[in-house]
Write a structure and sequence with these properties.
By secondary structure, the protein is of the alpha+beta class. It folds into 3 domains: 109 residues, Orthogonal Bundle (Butyryl-Coa Dehydrogenase, subunit A, domain 1), CATH 1.10.540.10; 105 residues, Butyryl-CoA Dehydrogenase, subunit A, domain 2; 140 residues, Up-down Bundle (Butyryl-CoA Dehydrogenase, subunit A, domain 3), CATH 1.20.140. The chain contains 14 helices and 8 strands. β2 and β3 form a beta hairpin. The protein is globular. It starts with 18 loop residues before the first helix and ends with a helix.
């Protein structure tokens, strides 16, 4: 059995008609439903499932991943919705990115059966899930080896192996994954797996400094059956070239929401501490200008996410690197501007600082981005 599911040409890039309404609804969900949960998410690891379902119903996972053949792929609206949530909670914004990545994979596949089974349910938030591509994204760029191995069987594949961390999961969730076929010279295949499969075990992992509310698990697969109807791409090569930019660009929503939140914290502190905060070298206006420049660059890049040229991908990587650096710098300065009041256990500044480091270490992490840029520029 051979499948040939790689994804055809995608060229229709335009904002959805109700983009402003989607972002406004996401912001309202953040203010009304998410904000009261932020401390519990951070301190107790509460998973914001109801918020995620509400965001799906509001259209926050849909714009970038249309299912109709000639529909527009609008990354900017999905980034805007994620950014609105990121102003309140990075755990929830990261779960949104996981969900968005899963929808991005499905929308860009040529597997009609996969789209029919899962496409609309993922776009609407009826089904939630994770990306599962941290390991393969590192493997593709020579940082580590693929951890999942499969073989062809009647009707699909059997896959065995372990993934250390996959987020936005649960017993009824799905996740994307890439596995190699050792018997076929290491050919790579991408597919969607169901956490409900008894041959897939979710393993509680390490307690993190932040983002414990993201339902992050280790995964153990023992001859897990992946039906052909859930194959995203086989062969993988041409497909991964097309989805890689969108995968990375969507992460900008986490950074933008973080930076905007930290600007607000600096300005709030300035209401009573401006006489001393004015002596700090980095001010809210500096980050406002930096954020505007980053948003403009990402917006321009979102116009052509299927551009596979090296020059374009270098711009994507540079924008992502700058966004991560800016998020950490903004959170660091929010802490300095807030002072002791931001350093208390329930202080927003210390929480935002802990969360900001995640923007810099989530795949592709700062060090991976720098390696990728060095490799591409040296080629």
């Amino acid at each position: 059995m051979q499948t040939a599911i790689a994804g055809g040409e995608r060229t229709a890039i335009a904002p959805v008609e109700d983009a402003e309404a989607i972002i406004a609804r996401a912001a309202e969900i953040g203010r009304v439903e998410l904000q009261p949960l932020v401390h519990s998410i951070d301190a107790e690891g509460v998973y914001p499932e109801a918020v995620m379902r509400a965001l799906g119903a509001a259209g926050a996972f849909r714009a970038h991943a249309p299912l109709a053949p000639d529909a527009a792929f609008d990354l900017k609206t999905s980034i805007g919705a994620m950014s609105a949530i990121g102003e309140y909670c990075l755990s929830t914004a990261f779960c949104m990115w996981c969900q968005d990545a899963l929808g991005w994979y499905i929308a860009n596949s040529d597997n009609a059966a996969l789209k029919a089974e899962l496409g609309e349910k993922v776009a609407s938030g009826q089904i939630l899930g994770g990306t599962g591509l941290s390991n393969p994204m590192k493997a593709i760029f020579g940082i580590e080896k693929i951890k999942l191995a499969g073989k062809r069987v009647e009707g699909g594949f059997e896959v065995t192996g372990r993934l250390p961390w996959v987020s936005n999961l649960g017993d009824d969730h799905f996740f994307g994954m890439i596995f190699e076929l050792p018997e076929e010279d290491g050919r790579l295949v991408m597919a969607v797996a169901d956490c409900a499969d008894e041959r897939i075990k979710l393993v509680e992992g390490t307690e993190f400094t932040a983002l414990d509310g993201t339902r992050t698990f280790g995964l153990q697969l023992r001859k897990a059956f992946i039906p052909a109807a859930r194959v995203i791409a086989d062969p993988l090569g041409p497909y991964i070239q097309r989805i890689r930019a969108g995968f990375i660009l969507l992460q900008a929503g986490m950074a933008f929401g973080m930076i905007r939140s930290c600007i607000d914290l600096m300005e709030q502190a300035g209401q009573t501490l401006s006489h001393v905060n004015c002596h700090l070298p980095d001010q809210p206006e500096d980050f406002r200008q930096q954020l505007a420049a980053l948003e403009a660059e990402v917006s321009a890049l979102c116009e052509t996410p299927f551009d596979t040229s090296t020059d374009y991908f270098i711009r994507v990587l540079e924008a992502r690197l700058q966004a991560g650096d800016a998020a950490v710098a903004a959170a660091h300065n929010a802490m300095l501007h807030c002072g002791a009041r931001g350093y208390v256990k329930n202080g927003a500044a210390q929480r935002r600082l802990r969360e900001a480091y995640f923007v810099a270490i989530v795949t592709p992490a700062t060090k991976q981005l720098r390696k990728m840029l060095a490799d591409l520029k040296a080629a």
